[in-house]
Amino acid sequence: MTLAFIGEVEDPISFTKIRDEISFTPFTMTLSYLSYFPDRKNSKLYWLGIDPCEEVIDLQKRLTDLLKVNHLPFHDKPFLPHISLSRKTLRDSPLIIDDLLPITVKIDTLYLMESIPYKNTRIGIPIK
């Protein structure tokens, strides 16, 4: 789940310091439905939506507040809590995973991820 999209930066050290300042009590959230954003060339970006979760909203707000106070750039747009599943997905039929939902997950760690090129898309890897 992306809490704040940072974009390209030369040195992630200041962002890792912000991440390390944030502490929270582990919590659970429930992934309850599948949706998608239209992507380029008739492809779709599939994602899982979560049930309302104050802990996620609070965590995202604390993170973006710290980024603002420290004058660190990020894409400050409305937050839609979701878990991205796939990008640039082309399918002849809709993706159906209703039998798998809902899924309850425990959140106990905040990661800073780097998006790197992989084949025809990008993948995220954690930054230590």
Describe this structure in words.
This protein has helices at 13-21, 54-69; strands at residues 27-38, 44-50, 82-89, 103-107, 112-118, 121-127. The two termini are 17 Å apart. 6% of the residues are buried. A hairpin with a 2-residue loop joins strand 5 and strand 6. The mean pLDDT is 88. It is globular, with a radius of gyration of 16 Å. The chain has a single domain (13-127), classed as Cyclic Phosphodiesterase, Chain: A. The longest helix has 16 residues, at 54-69. Helices cover 20% and strands 36% of the residues. It has 128 residues and is an alpha+beta fold.
Radius of gyration over C-alpha positions, nearest whole angstrom: 16 Å
- The H/E string reads HEEHEEEE
**What's the architecture in CATH terms?**
Alpha-Beta Complex
- Our count of helices gives 2
**Strand-residue fraction?**
35-45%
What is the SS-derived class? Answer: alpha+beta
CATH class: Alpha Beta
State the helical fraction.
10-25%
CATH homologous superfamily grouping: Cyclic phosphodiesterase
Strand order of the largest sheet: 3-2-1-4
- Major sheet characteristics: 4 strands, antiparallel
Which key terms come to mind for this protein?
128 residues; alpha+beta; Cyclic Phosphodiesterase, Chain: A; two-stranded antiparallel ribbon; 2 helices; 36% strand
Topology diagram in text:
Blueprint: H1 13-21, E1 27-38, E2 44-50, H2 54-69, E3 82-89, E4 103-107, E5 112-118, E6 121-127
Antiparallel strand pairs: 1-2, 1-4, 2-3, 5-6
